[in-house]
TrEMBL record:
Membrane-spanning segments: 696-719
GO biological process: anatomical structure morphogenesis; homophilic cell adhesion via plasma membrane adhesion molecules
Membrane topology: Single-pass type I membrane protein
This protein's name: Cadherin domain-containing protein
Compartments where located: Cell membrane
Keyword set, alphabetical order: Calcium, Cell adhesion, Cell membrane, Glycoprotein, Membrane, Repeat, Signal, Transmembrane, Transmembrane helix
Organism: Culter alburnus
Classification via Gene3D superfamilies: Cadherins
Residue ranges of every copy of the Cadherin domain listed in the record: 29-135, 136-244, 245-352, 353-458, 459-568, 583-682
Length: 791
């Protein structure tokens, strides 16, 4: 179209220019010539001889500038200045130049000079049938609903043919089909429009797609044609209901099926298509919420899956209504029921229930006493619910089945002793008969309550305590302890001293005991010199009903303290002072016994071990004193220069840590031998009398010590017999007397051997640590283990 406008513009412009030239130069337009030529001619084909047709000498053409000055198709033609022939310049396509215009004319202006001439040449392009009818698209798609009524018209795309005249589009032809026919509407210049008319109703379920072919033919000889395929898709309407593929849906499902397990898949079909044929599955409206929690349905695939835990014991079958619906505007729905049967598996452990339970039973209960009633159950069915019950360990108990189903009695089988075992953890095992079997375990605790069947027991029997004399009255003296294997009130112990009106128990009035803790207090101080040992009995009684009791013998040994000063027995004057006069002949030799100082100490051990020393003496070289015996002897013979009277001050002290002492004064008179014999007779008589008194006191003292020692030995023997232990090797006696009233008692405690000694003490003895300063330990490599109690 643009090319055509451009050619018209060139034509008008050339005419205007030519007219102007004619006016200026007086040029003359001579003639107009017309030629005809078919399209599609080759390059260089001669159209006509312009010079010859115009009568112009061809020899003058070049001189006169023979040329084409303006044309609508100058580029398509050229002139030869030598012979004046018009030639085709390139291939000419009529449809490209004139499109659908008829006739197709090309105007040329030929110019010559001297004189100036303008000639008009018209070239008509003749059409040939070189184009076949064609459609814009090779295929055309139509969608026609199966609900369309006969007579419905569907306009098709028209074909186009570039040729003109008889070579242009002539008519259409439609392939055979029962449902459609073709009608053509002629719109003149706009061409012939094909129209498809429905003449028979469509059924998509019979025919979903219809393929037609439309052919367009021109009037050429031979005729040319073009085709277009018409693809008709029959659009569905929702005229079919969904149909399930099975009449009955039934399935069996284990109760332990995990969540997500596919139970069954339902399937329904719909002959419609598109949304009308798309199936949506759902539960029926009558399905309750509990079932919806257990099962789920896939709305697209129809798969029913497990959504929650299934329990055969809750429900053994489910009948579920489902629906299949299409997606039509007005959807069609079909209902169906699914039967799901739950298969029982052994998934429940037996349950143990203690229906009646005695948490505590007395330890004196007889065998066969019922402790508890046990019932077992299992929610499973069949063999899975059949339960047996047993004890993991007999432990003095057993299960006895009762007449009622799955009920047992737990009874004792042997005597019980709380002191041996106060608690029994009884494990009950319940086991079903399923495969595999499941079991449950339950532990019940049976407490054995106490019965007062045990007497208090003392930690030691008999007790032996060593108490220092001069103890503080009211202060803790010693303590005893007893225990009771029973519990609570049956184990609460009270203490008391067993007081008998006998001579042996007279000391019990001087002691008291704390009834709650067994601490024993002395109500008075003890004096070793008065009493060295005594015993009493302590009674321990529990608080049970009736109460039980036991007693123990307590032996108390009084330990000596240095609380007695040495007593001078000789010399003693008439007024009671320790002073005496001794006369000796002057002619005595060295070593002569002048006299002997006698003394004793009521204490024992170191406290009673006396040593003698010269405190004052007029002549040290003349007299000597035996440290241990108190004998005074001459160290040399008397000389004429020695004085006739000598005063000796004798110090007697014991060996206590804080030693006590006494002094005696002896005046020695040196006389001539005759005087000495006379005086000796008188003194001998006096001395014999004095010595008789001293001997009497010594006999009494030794007798008392001996009696006390014998009593101690008897007590020790009794203790030995009561404990069935050899005490004879522990308490050994050894009394000695060498003139100073010394005595000794040996005894053993544990791995140490003790000796209570007087002045004659063993040279190898040492002070025993912790012996309260009056007990010696004798080295003894023959020590042996002993369970004796020492304090």
């Amino acid at each position: 179209m643009e090319q055509r406008r451009y050619a018209q513009w060139l034509k008008e412009h050339a005419e205007f220019t030519l007219m102007a030239a004619l006016l200026v130069f007086g040029a003359v337009a001579r003639a107009q010539i017309q030629y005809s030529i078919s399209e599609e001619q080759k390059d260089g084909v001669a159209v006509g001889n312009i010079a010859k047709d115009l009568g112009i000498d061809h020899r003058t053409l070049k001189e006169r500038g023979f040329r084409i000055v303006s044309t609508s198709g100058e580029s398509m033609f050229s002139v030869n200045q030598n012979d004046g022939v018009l030639y085709v310049n390139g291939k000419i396509d009529r449809e490209g130049i004139c499109e659908r215009s008829t006739p197709c004319l090309i105007n040329l202006k030929i110019a010559l000079e001297n004189p100036l001439e303008i000639h008009y040449v018209t070239v008509e392009i003749l059409d040939i049938n070189d184009h076949a009818p064609s459609f814009p698209e090779s295929e055309m798609h139509l969608e026609i609903g199966e609900s369309a009524l006969p007579g419905a018209r569907f306009q098709l795309e028209a074909a186009r043919d570039s040729d003109s005249g008889s070579n242009s589009l002539h008519h259409y032809k439609l392939s055979h089909n029962d449902n459609f026919r073709l009608e053509v509407k002629d719109r003149g210049e706009d061409g012939k429009i094909p129209i498809l008319i429905l003449q028979k109703p469509l059924d998509r379920e019979l025919t979903r797609n219809i393929n037609l072919q439309l052919t367009a033919l021109d009037g050429g000889k031979p005729a040319k044609s073009g085709t277009m395929d018409i693809m008709i898709k029959v659009i569905d309407i929702n005229d079919n209901v969904p149909v399930f593929t099975k009449d009955v849906y039934s399935v069996m499902l284990s109760e332990n099926a995990p969540i997500g397990t596919i139970v069954i898949q339902v399937n329904a079909t719909d002959l419609d298509e598109g949304p009308n044929g798309e199936i949506v599955y759902s539960f029926g409206k009558s399905v309750n919420s509990k079932v919806r929690k257990l099962f789920d349905i896939n709305t697209i695939t129809g798969e029913i899956t497990v959504e929650g835990p299934l329990d055969y014991e809750d429900k053994d079958s489910y009948e579920i209504d489902i629906q299949a619906s299409d997606k039509g505007t007005v959807p069609h729905t079909t209902d169906k029921s699914i039967m799901i049967k739950i298969i029982d598996i052994n998934d429940n452990k037996p349950e143990i229930e203690v229906t009646s339970f005695s948490k505590a039973i007395p330890e004196d209960s007889r065998p066969g006493t019922t402790v508890a009633l046990i019932s077992v159950s299992d929610l499973d069915s069949g063999l899975n619910g059949k339960v047996s019950c047993s004890l993991e360990d007999d432990m003095h108990f057993k299960l006895i089945p009762s007449s009622q189903h799955s009920t047992f009695s737990l009874v004792s089988t042997s005597p019980l002793d709380r002191e041996t075992k106060f608690q029994y953890d009884i494990t009950l095992v319940a086991k079903d008969a399923g495969q595999p079997s499941l079991s449950s375990v339950k532990t019940i605790t049976v407490l054995i309550s106490d019965v007062n069947d045990n007497s208090p027991e003392f930690s030691s029997s008999p007790y032996a305590f060593y108490v220092m004399e001069n103890n503080v009255p009211g202060k803790l003296l010693l303590s005893v302890s007893a225990s009771d294997k029973d519990s609570n009130e049956n184990a609460i112990i009270s203490y008391q001293i067993w007081r008998e009106n006998t001579e042996e128990n007279k000391y019990t009035s001087f002691i008291n005991i704390n009834s709650e803790n067994g601490e024993i207090y002395a109500l008075k101080s003890f004096d070793f010199e008065t009493v060295k040992t005594f015993q009493f009995h302590v009674l321990a009684t529990d608080s049970g009903s009736p109460s039980l009791s036991s007693n123990v013998t307590v032996n108390v040994f009084i330990l000596d303290q240095n609380d007695n000063v040495p007593v001078i027995l000789y010399p003693v004057s008439a007024n009671g002072s320790a002073e005496g006069v001794e006369e000796i002949p002057r002619n005595v030799n060295a070593g002569h016994l002048v006299t002997k100082v006698r003394a004793y100490d009521a204490d024992i051990g170191y406290n009673g071990w006396l040593l003698f020393s010269l405190q004052e003496v007029s002549e040290h070289s003349l007299f000597g004193l035996d440290r241990y015996t108190g004998q005074i002897r001459t160290l040399r013979s008397f000389t004429e220069t020695d004085e006739a009277q000598h005063k000796l001050l004798i110090l007697v002290k014991d060996n206590g840590n804080v030693s006590l002492s006494a002094t005696a004064t002896v005046i020695v008179k040196v006389v001539e031998p005759k005087e000495a014999f006379a005086a000796s007779d008188v003194k001998n008589a006096v001395k014999d009398e004095e010595e008789n008194d001293v001997t009497f006191y010594l006999i009494i003292t030794l007798g008392s010590v001996s009696v006390l020692f014998v009593i101690s030995i008897i007590v020790l023997i009794v203790m030995q017999c009561s404990k069935s232990t050899d005490y004879s090797s522990k308490y050994l006696q050894d009394t000695n007397y060498d003139g100073t009233l010394c005595h000794s008692i040996q005894y053993r405690s544990g791995d140490k051997r003790y000796m209570l000694v007087g002045p004659r003490m063993s040279i190898g003895s040492t002070i025993a640590p912790g012996s309260n300063r009056n007990t010696l330990v004798i080295p003894d490599r023959r020590r042996r283990d002993s369970g004796e109690v020492s304090q």
